[in-house]
Amino acid sequence: MPRGLHQAPIIPKLGFAQTSMNRLRTRRQQFAAFRFLATTATPRPAVPQTVIEKVVQKYAVGLPAGKVVRAGDYVMIRPEHVMTHDNTGPVISKFKSVGATKIANPRQLVFTLDHDVQNKSEKNLAKYLRIEQFAREHNVDFYPAGRGIGHQVLIEEGYAFPYTLTVAE
């Protein structure tokens, strides 16, 4: 070969079919990598939870590991606070009839007397006294007749606030 002339390496020109095969192979590799990542990544809900679903998730008990609460799901909950009112009397009777002697979390309960406050009969006043005595005996927060509407008391006294689950019957 004469001096000064360089022989270029011979690179075969890829035809259309060969180029298409390379693209297809690359796509298969990308898909395989994606499939691997999709199966090994932590599952994430396709649609984010609503605020209500997040609150219920926070207070749900007995959910399977990884369960994401959605609207329409049936769940058991342990609310932050539970308010009862004048009908606490039958609840006390049931409490005693099952042999219970202690409330697991007295800070969870709130008793507000607000439904029959105009009734000054001896029977009603005795019922109110029994409810108050039970509340004091078990260290349950108690708001007597005349204090206000129970649902409003929950807000005024800081039992119900955003992102907590408080139930009132």
Summarize the structure.
The protein is an alpha/beta fold and 169 residues long. It contains 5 helices and 6 strands; from the N terminus they run ααβββαβαβαβ.
List strands and helices in order, with pairings.
Blueprint: H1 16-40, H2 51-59, E1 60-61, E2 76-77, E3 81-84, H3 88-97, E4 109-112, H4 122-137, E5 141-143, H5 150-156, E6 166-168
Parallel strand pairs: 3-4, 3-6, 4-5
Antiparallel strand pairs: 1-2
Main sheet specs:
4 strands, parallel
> Averaged pLDDT, please?
84
Strand order of the largest sheet: 5-4-3-6
- Strand portion: 5-15%
What general outline do the C-alpha atoms trace? elongated
- Unreliable sequence segments: none
Structural class: alpha/beta
Helix/strand order: HHEEEHEHEHE
Instruction: Please report the number of helical segments.
Output: 5
How many runs of DSSP E, i.e. beta strands? 6
**What gap, in angstroms, lies between the N and C termini?**
101 Å
Radius of gyration: 34 Å
Summarize the amount of helix as a percent range: 25-40%
Overview of the structural elements:
Helices cover 40% and strands 11% of the residues. It is built from five helices and six strands, in the order ααβββαβαβαβ. It has helices at residues 16-40, 51-59, 88-97, 122-137, 150-156, and strands at residues 60-61, 76-77, 81-84, 109-112, 141-143, 166-168. The longest helix is centred in the first third of the chain and has 25 residues, at 16-40. The termini are far apart. The relative contact order is 0.13.
